[in-house]
Design goal:
166 residues, five-stranded mixed beta sheet, two-stranded antiparallel sheet, globular
Length: 166
């Protein structure tokens, strides 16, 4: 499949069993690097998801493991979290991330307020950093803008490395 947003890119294959997660707002895409030692959790959406995968690969090259999640709808995750919060249940997002460890970094080409909308529904005690394209009126190449807004692979990896461990 090819996604048409602000950029054409080939979507990676959907992992087996992920179809329900796509509809619920997110799914576990994969794991990179060592399974023991320092680990981080990376969430990405839209065109920035490819940057998240590249960040995971960069971290793996440094000996740091990561679990990568594709977020298909921040809004759906927030709605689910609010519904479960009023019932006293665990949110889908908290369940989804329960098998991951380390600080969580969310990167999107939306403003940071969008991934911030799910902060209350994360697993308890986890550090959460958000990266997004806050601002307007800028014009440049995608690479320069992603670097400026800190949503390029290098910035995502650096944010993950700088986050306090859980």
């Amino acid at each position: 499949y090819v996604t048409l947003m602000n950029e054409n890119y080939a979507n990676p294959d959907l992992p087996e069993g992920a179809a329900e997660g796509v509809l619920r707002g997110g799914y576990r895409f994969g794991s990179y690097g060592p399974q023991t030692g320092q680990r981080v959790t990376l969430l990405g959406s839209g065109a920035i998801f490819t940057e998240v995968v590249q960040a995971a690969q960069q971290l793996a090259a440094q000996g740091i493991g990561s679990d990568v999640y594709s977020i298909t709808s921040w809004s759906e995750l927030a709605r689910d979290g609010m519904a479960h919060e009023s019932n006293g249940d665990t949110s889908y997002l908290a369940q989804l991330l329960s098998s991951s460890s380390g600080p969580i970094v969310a990167a999107t080409d939306y403003v940071r307020a969008v991934p911030e909308s799910v902060r209350a529904y994360l697993p308890a005690g986890r550090t959460y950093r958000t990266l997004g394209t806050d601002g307007f009126g800028r014009s440049d190449t995608r690479a320069v803008l992603r670097s400026f807004f800190n949503v390029d692979a290098q910035s995502i990896a650096s944010c993950a490395l700088g986050a306090p461990p859980n």
